[in-house]
Amino acid sequence: MGLFVECLDKPNHPKHFLVIPLVITLIIGFVSMFTILKYYLTNRTGRNNNLLSGTCSSPPVVPGLPLIGNLLQLKDEITHHTFANWAEIYGPIYSIKAGASNIVVLNSTDVAKEAMVTKFSFISKRKQTNAMNKLKNNIIITRDSNEYHKMARRHVVTHMLGAGAQRRHRAHRDIMIDNVVNGLNAHAKENPMDQPVNFRRILQTEIFGLALKQALGVDSVGSSKYIEGLGETLSRDEIFKVLVLDPLSGGAEVDWRDFFPYLRWVPNKSFEMHIGRMEIRRLEVMKTLIEEQQKRISSGQEINCYLDRLMLAEGKTLAKTHLTMLIWETILVGSETIVDTAEFAMYELARNLKYQDHLYREIQKVCGNNKYTEEQFSGVTYLSAVFHETLRRHPPFPVSPLRYVHEDTQLGGYDIPAGTEIAINLYGCNMDKRQWDSPEEWKPDRFLDSKYDPNDLYKTMSFGGGKRVCPGALQGLSITCTAIARCIQDFKWSLKPGREEEDINTATLTSQKLNPLLVIVTPRDY
Question: Any idea where this protein resides (predicted)?
Answer without folding.
Answer: Membrane
